[in-house]
Design brief:
The chain is an alpha+beta fold and 156 residues long. It contains 3 helices and 10 strands; from the N terminus they run E-H-E-E-E-H-E-E-E-E-E-H-E. Strand 6 and strand 7 form a beta hairpin. Helix 1 packs antiparallel against helix 3. The chain is globular, with a radius of gyration of 16 Å.
């Protein structure tokens, strides 16, 4: 069985909210996705000790280099995660295979949004009439957390 997610992360990869703010924002997202005709299997927040890759799963199919515009194989990113021992990173600077330049992982161009963060709110298998959270809903999450957020839609 496959799973879909709406993942919300701070726009500053190192920022983390206070636990009470994180709980309020997760409760708001759960409420949004639990109305008439809407449903969600689970909404939770997660704090990470290190900056962690928040990916889009099967939706990400292409990576390009910001220096040379060369294509970077998805397998390269997977191997990097495996070599690192997981999706959390101490440092994001890497040497890309296309032109040998050193770039930040969050500076690469991904065909679908993904991000790096030390906090996320994750909604598993949401069904919402409009699909993703809209600008007003994201603004309310921003207000509750006290920091702007980005939305990543993922499928595994």
């Amino acid at each position: 069985m496959s799973d879909s997610y709406i993942r919300l992360i701070p726009t500053d990869r190192d920022w983390q909210p206070e636990p009470a703010a994180a709980a309020a924002a997760a409760a708001y997202v759960a409420e949004l996705l639990s109305g008439s005709g809407d449903d969600v299997e689970r909404v939770e927040n997660q704090f990470y000790e290190r900056v962690t890759l928040i990916d889009a799963g099967m939706y990400t199919t292409r990576i390009t280099c910001p220096r040379c515009a060369g294509n970077i194989a998805m397998d390269w990113l997977g191997a990097l995660v495996r070599q690192n021992g997981g999706a959390s990173f101490e440092r994001l600077d890497v040497r890309v295979p296309c032109c040998n330049a050193v770039v930040e992982l969050d500076g690469l161009h991904y065909d679908e949004p993904l991000g790096f963060a030390r906090f996320e709110i994750s909604a598993m298998n949401p069904t919402q009439a409009q699909g993703e959270l809209d600008a007003g809903e994201l603004a309310r999450v921003t207000d509750l957390l006290g920091h702007p957020v980005a939305q990543i839609v993922a499928h595994y």
